[in-house]
Every structure is written in structure tokens, then in C-alpha cells.
Amino acid sequence: MNKNFSIILATDDQNGIGKNWNLAWNLSSDLKYFKKITTQTTSENKKNVVIMWRKTWESIPEKFRPLPLRINCILSRNNNSKIDLEKNILWSNSLENCLEELKNIPNIENIFIIWWAKLYNDSLKNPNLNKIYLTKVSWNFNCDVFFNWIPDNFKLENKSETQEEKWIKFYFEIWKR
Among 11-15, 17-21, 32-36, 63-67, which is the least confidently predicted range? Predict the structure, then answer.
């Protein structure tokens, strides 16, 4: 397995991604898209991985943890690596250590970094970042957490038609290195 990974996120008009440790909007279409992208594989024998910070993990209601049909890698500075593949959970103390551990797990197809600005923005400098799945929400939600922006060495590969839900307009983009 190579160490390439993607990030998946949504931003508003100002590149805001959250407010008060929460998503600033709730769009069921975006959540369905997120689930589809992060669970879909080319074979039922394969699995995808979602990598998140511990606070993100804790923000997911217990009844929805771990996110189903995916290996959940939780990053926490206070943890050494622990794997519980029966529960689809991997704890790691860094992104690099998580990616190293994943090399030993068979049949991983895609790796996604989810929800947290520092992890997203640090990932932009990583040469193993190969795709960005971006939902662009056409509104300013006065966020307090922001995504830097897509590096120049990424090109827009796909853009959906504009959709609307609860008065909010949005569209999906896929950027590739």
C-alpha cells in the first residue's frame, strides 16, 4: 500500500469550515456525499480509512462510532499505536505513524483525512496528498476555523451542478495533484 491520501471537507465562501468546534451548517446531501466517498471501494474485500483527531472522534455521538464500513484512525498525542481491527479502530500519535501502521493492514483502498483545520492545512504540504474532495457552500457562516486553500499544483478534475438544500446552495469539487 502506498501512503497517498485525500482530504474531504466543506467550506463556505470565506473558506470557513466550522464554528465553536462544530460544523457551521448541516446539509444531509453533503453528509450522504461524505459517506459515499469515504465508504465506496472497487471491491467488497477492500476498506477505506478515515483519519481524524481525537476531538473529532469525541464529537461523533457514541452510537455512530466508529464510522461504519471504514477503518477509523484516531490521532492523539497521548496514545501509542493500538489496533482493534474487529472494531475498525486504530489509535495513533501522529499522521505519519498512522500511515505506517496502515501499511500492515491488507486491502486498504483509500485513505481520507476528515474534519480538523490543522490536520487539513498541515496535509496541504504533504507530498502524499493526492486528492481534495471539497464541498463549496455558497454563504458566509462567520466561521472561526478556516481551510488555507488548494495548492497551485492541484487541478480541478470535476465539479457538480449547483444544488440547494434548506436555502443553502452548494456544489462538489474534486481536485487532483
Answer: 17-21
